[in-house]
Amino acid sequence: MAKRNYYIQNEIVLCTYAAMYDADDFGGTFRIEDLTRRSPASIRMKIQNIASMLDEASIRRYNNISPLTGLPHGQSGRVTNWKAVEPLTKLPKQVFLHQCLKIVGL
């Protein structure tokens, strides 16, 4: 069986910011790809998964990212990395962005 390629904390931080605001603020999703050479499709799904979790938790998002879909009506999405995502949602946008910019080296 192949080893799972779990998201690292820095990827989760960037994907959460992208789900809440706009990845272009820190240079775009390719900056996330540069961290671990993860595929663009995987990153897009992670951002959509986080957007879905934010929506389920009634946490406001400031973009039009489509949340991860495909579940039957009435079922909630898959909650992954919530312990890492949830505290990030409480950061002021500028503090959160500063953290992202440090991660990508800007």
Look at the structure and give the mean pLDDT: 91
Counting DSSP H or I runs of 4 or more residues, the number of helices is 5
Structural class category: mainly alpha
Sheet of most strands:
none
Beta-strand percentage? under 5%
Beginning-to-end CA distance, first to last residue: 38 Å
Query: Share of helix among residues?
Result: 40-55%
Weakly predicted, low-confidence segments: none
Radius of gyration: 13 Å
The geometry reads as globular
The tally of domains stands at 1
Textual characterization of the structure:
It contains 5 helices and no strands. It has one domain (about 10-105). The radius of gyration is 13 Å and the shape is globular. The mean pLDDT is about 90. By secondary structure, the protein is mainly α.
Overview features:
mainly alpha
Compact description:
The chain has helices at residues 9-20, 30-36, 40-56, 82-88, 93-104. The protein is mainly alpha-helical and 106 residues long. It has one domain (9-104).
Would you spell out the secondary-structure blueprint of this structure?
Layout: H1 9-20, H2 30-36, H3 40-56, H4 82-88, H5 93-104
Helix pairs in contact: 1-3, 1-5
